[in-house]
Design goal:
The complex is a heterodimer of chains A (76) and B (532). Chain A is mostly helical. Chain A is 63% helix and 0% strand. Chain A has helices at residues 2-16, 35-49, 55-60, 64-75. Classes of the chains: A mainly alpha (76), B alpha/beta (532). At the A-B interface, helix 2 and helix 3 of A face helix 4 of B.
Chain lengths: 76, 532
């Protein structure tokens, strides 16, 4: 689980070009997380984990916690 | 890509992701009412719309009108890059229905018509990129419906690289010289072991593949790429191959330089760079042997060394990739087409030089004619190309495209071109000087000469002639700049030698001045100057 979290945070750091990202971070707390960056993030996560999200999931994946939950579900 | 250039992209879908590697701002969807006037370049990137069939054709025609208006609204001195359209998604219930196809054809024809009328418009054929993918991979419908992305976001990385290579082609940045190995590169087998009748060239596979490869390389050289050979072989064997093999296409006369010996290929290429007067970063080296490629990569990191295919049947793909990556150019100039001839004539000049003891005697004997003219419609593209490609004899290394030079002219600058003709041939346009004029002061914005004509005091004659012209124009003061780069050390003292006074100078730029009311310069008697 922690390994998964680290991989996800690494993707976020790369997409948002930030050195530090907290596991409680969300669209509210990261200024660069606008709608375009959100799509770039989803594409990057899909590539990293070789999975494909449903549009409904994409709309909800707006915090680190939610992202971890959805990806965890996909990988189960 | 130079980050300093700012682009403004006209678009009809969400495509920001595709232009992430350049600095860009974007129009609204299908919106041409607001144009970023600060942008240095404009991009027209409209994708075929997704709608019911009856609407698509009408919408595409409307897009063609928008493109025309957008060109009118943007400054004519800035590059306007327009992508053609391709049918990404349309449903054809009637097989003979050509509504959408013809609308797209008309749209593309409209873009080419704009290009024909407006010098700043350059059209890029998007099918050259999209045809690399399956139709169903062009759109990811999830992203289309979530955020109106007209292209699959996964294509953005490859698109960025492709777009950069097209921009380089438009900017006329290409490599200059292709260095070729022989055995298992231009023919199959080893000449020294298999003999002329044993190597594979022409006939059946694999000779057929090598034959096509040679034909393609010859065509490339006709388009201005200089060819050279670097091979571990006996020169007698190779000459015999060239003169006796019935299917050889490339022969000795097609190569500007030969290094057929047993020395290190890195040393050989370094020597050829000096002989041809071309920077190492303008070389591409093809060799089937991975250890030779590794050696050249290690010792000459500036040389481009693509991976050569292990199978001869992969040569067509390899050739296409190599050309598109290193040698593509938007349009050819007259000088490109005779380049190998010019470089060979240069080598002959270098040989002739050795038998004269007095340099002046040699220069007289060359019967040089310098043609100096103001830049014209016919020479503008070549002039822009020179600013892009000249590195060594270049005082400020300022790069211009067609549009940049046009705006210089519009603001009153004079642009002089120089071409040189001597006993051995015509160099074409090989010198350029851009002079900004403000009342009684002139500023030498750019002064550059192709390396091919150096070593004959041509630079002095060209520059003195220009100074005399400026005096005739009642210019009182001439200012000049030297901006050092990694490659232009040889002109560090150029203005000192011309009698200019240094005003200020630091590591980034030295500023010179000269009082132009003093005297006329004498041009050496062995130059015949033709004015146009």
């Amino acid at each position: 689980m922690n390994k998964l979290k680290d991989r996800i945070i690494a993707v976020l750091q790369k997409v948002f070009e930030l050195e530090q990202i907290d596991e409680n971070a969300s669209q509210q707390t990261i200024e660069k997380w606008d709608s375009l960056a959100h799509l770039n993030l989803i594409v990057a996560l899909e590539e990293e984990f070789d999975i494909s999200f449903e549009p409904e999931e994409i709309a909800e994946m707006i915090s680190v916690q939610m992202i971890i939950n959805f990806i965890d579900n996909h990988l189960k | 890509m130079r980050l300093s250039i700012h682009y403004f992209v006209f678009r009809n879908t969400t495509i920001e992701r595709f232009f992430q590697n350049i600095s860009a701002t974007f129009s609204g969807y299908e919106d041409i009412s607001v144009v970023n006037e600060q942008a240095e370049r404009y991009v027209w990137f409209y994708l075929s719309p997704v709608a019911e069939n009856t609407l698509i054709a009408g919408k595409i025609r409307y897009y063609a009108d928008l493109a025309r208006m957008a060109v009118e609204k943007t400054p004519p001195d800035r590059m306007f890059i327009a992508f053609t359209m391709m049918d990404i998604y349309s449903v054809q219930s009637t097989v003979s229905d050509r509504t959408v196809v013809s609308a797209i054809c008309e749209y593309n024809a409209a873009l080419y018509a704009l290009e024909a009328v407006h010098a700043n418009v350059k059209v890029i054929d998007i099918t050259r990129f999209l045809n690399n993918y399956k139709t169903e991979d062009l759109i990811d419908w999830r992203y289309y419906f979530i955020s109106q992305m007209g292209l699959n976001p996964r294509l953005s990385g490859a698109f960025g690289e492709w777009f950069e290579s097209r921009i380089r082609a438009i900017e006329m940045k290409r490599k200059k010289c292709l260095v070729l190995d022989l055995d298992n590169t231009l023919w199959g087998g080893v000449l020294g072991e298999d003999g002329i009748s044993g190597v594979a060239l022409g006939g059946d596979y694999s000779g057929k593949a090598f034959l096509l490869f040679q034909q393609q390389i010859l065509e490339l050289s006709r388009e201005g790429v200089i060819l050279a050979v670097c091979s571990k072989n006996n020169i007698e064997d190779v000459r015999k191959m060239w003169s006796e093999h019935p299917d050889t296409v490339l022969r000795e006369e097609h190569f500007a330089a030969l290094r057929i010996n047993w020395h290190s290929k890195a040393d050989n290429i370094r020597e050829m760079a000096e002989e041809l007067n071309i920077g190492l970063d303008s070389f591409v080296f093809l060799d089937d042997n991975p250890s030779e490629r590794e050696l050249v990569k290690r010792f000459l990191p500036a040389v481009a060394v693509p991976d050569f295919p292990a199978q001869a049947y992969m040569l067509p793909v390899f050739f296409k990739q190599t050309v598109e990556q290193y040698f593509s150019i938007y349009a050819l100039t007259g000088e490109d087409k005779t380049k190998t001839e010019q470089y060979k004539a240069n080598a002959q000049r270098a040989n002739a030089q050795r038998s004269f003891t007095d340099m002046d005697e040699y220069l007289r004997w060359l019967e040089m004619e310098l043609t100096i003219a103001d830049v014209s419609e016919f020479t503008l593209a070549r002039a822009a190309q020179m600013t892009q490609k000249t590195n060594q004899f270049n005082l400020t290394t300022r790069r211009y495209d067609d549009a940049g030079l046009r705006s210089k002219l519009a603001s009153g600058s004079r642009i002089f071109t120089l071409s040189v003709c001597d006993k051995f041939g015509d160099s074409g346009i090989t010198g350029l000087c851009i002079v900004d004029l403000a009342e009684e002061t002139a500023l030498i914005d750019s002064l550059l000469l192709s390396c091919r004509i150096l070593g004959k005091h041509i630079e002095d004659a060209f520059f003195n002639y220009i100074l005399n012209q400026l005096k005739k124009q009642d210019i009182q003061t001439v200012k000049a700049l030297y901006v050092p780069t990694a490659k232009n050390m040889q002109v560090k003292d150029f203005y000192d030698r011309q009698g200019f006074q240094k005003i200020t100078g630091d590591d980034d730029c030295t500023v010179y001045t000269m009082d132009r009311s003093l005297h006329d310069f004498e041009v050496k008697p062995y130059f015949k100057i033709l004015e146009i």
